[in-house]
Request: fold
Amino acid sequence: MSRTFYARGQTGQQLLLGAYQALSRQIAAGNIEMHPRTEMLDLIVVDGRARGIVARDLVTGRIDTYFADAVVLASGGYGNVFYLSTNAMNSNATAIWRAHRRGALFANPCFTQIHPTCIPRTGDHQSKLTLMSESLRNDGRIWVPKAKGDQRPPNEIPEDERDYYLERIYPSFGNLVPRDIASRAAKNVCDEGRGVGPGGQGVYLDFADAIERMGVKAVEAKYGNLFDMYQRITDEDPYRVPMRIYPAVHYTMGGLWVDYDLQTTVPGLFAIGEANFSDHGANRLGASALMQGLADGYFVLPATINDYLARNPHHDAVTDEHPVVQDVLAETQDRLNLLLSVDGDRTPDSFHREVGELMWEFCGMARTDSGLRKALERIPQIREEFWRRIKVPGTGEEFNQSLEKANRVVDYLELAELMCLDALHRDESCGGHFREESQTPDGEAARKDEEFGYAAAWEFTGTGEAPTLHREDLAFEYVHPTQRSYA
Ligand SMILES: Cc1cc2nc3c(=O)[nH]c(=O)nc-3n(C[C@H](O)[C@H](O)[C@H](O)COP(=O)(O)OP(=O)(O)OC[C@H]3O[C@@H](n4cnc5c(N)ncnc54)[C@H](O)[C@@H]3O)c2cc1C
Reply:
């Protein structure tokens, strides 16, 4: 049985095409006004309610305000805080982080999903990682050489010298264990020195058995498009040699705290899809993100936002002249001006990469008390250096990607700190959050439900200041959390 339904490794793409078509239809019908290449830079909160946003036209640099009776953020996840991830390059945390700074609590920021089947990185030049569809684990077998440092080509390593480690450790689930388990297991074998490919940061995903069992034609029919993509990127033919894969940051389960109406703690501000923290707990299952996005936007929000509007009629229109709006506009402009004026010697990307690598090392697949403390010591230093050495060429009144990036890095440098703080305080392992101190004798995640059975919702109190933790206790009436076992 297949682990999940999929459309030839293009499930997400097909869903997106459907969503784009529905959106285009509404644009054509005059129900939606589209503002492409426009980035939200701040939230406008008047009298305690969300009443609009400040946004920058990325082509002309013009800063505009948009007012409304309610604001919905659907700005996606924050995986790009790690610099390298499977997310689109433009995905960023600015919208939710700015909303957080304006009063919206941020829940479970450390819950990050690392996807096990990505094409390994090849060097420092890379700015993006490519996901190979999870569906490949239905038929591919994952292995590494049994011996450390075995440099032989895969086809020359005999069967009894291969370690199909997922099948060995998790005989009932084998290669289909959840993403966090598959990812950590890959990290463990690579840490042992048994990784393959450049830098030893990879494991094999082998289709030789599937080809023998099903025949090339059947494998091609099922995965041909993915094999072609892999070959185009790596110049290796997965019909002949095993693919190489390695885990990469893929999804963020944390996000803005919302109630069942998908409303944040700022009245009138709603967050849907990956931007919010709801639904997935500490580990998202495959295929459920797009369904959450569709359910949030199609079923939940139309009912709950109407309820909010009915109960909270706004009588006063907000305009640019409102003192709050003037303040938000001035803050935005000042921040951009400051970024342009430092005129230092380091690019936004260099800072982004530095904080990303720090996060990958200390707040990635496995986390420790001492590692997180190291990161928490280092991040404010990077932030301080950022404001001394950042170099943004050009002006704010034009298409300026350096300015866009620098402004996003400002937010990553604060968000990264909150993620580490959250990971440090959650002294248990659960889902994608693995604290090395909290594991069973077999090396599996050890939960501490008595102590940590809550969503951690953090309140912003100032840059570099300790945020305030609010605990939302989780009540389980029917199905109670238990220690996972995939053995
Ligand atoms: C490679 C890949 C494959 C995936 N495959 C699957 C799958 O098969 N099944 C599944 O369920 N899930 C999958 N996921 C996860 C899923 O795609 C995402 O969780 C989902 O798209 C999130 O939807 P969203 O609408 O919340 O946010 P997004 O789709 O991320 O959209 C957010 C949009 O907001 C824009 N934005 C961000 N910040 C701002 C700002 N400040 N101002 C203006 N715009 C902004 C972004 O540019 C983006 O266009 C995949 C993810 C990736 C990266």
Notes: The CA atoms of residues 340 and 393 lie 7 Å apart. The pocket of flavin-adenine dinucleotide is lined by residues 11-12, 39-40, 74-76, 86-87, 90-92, 94-95, 131, 251, 273-275, 287-290, 293 (CB under 6 Å).
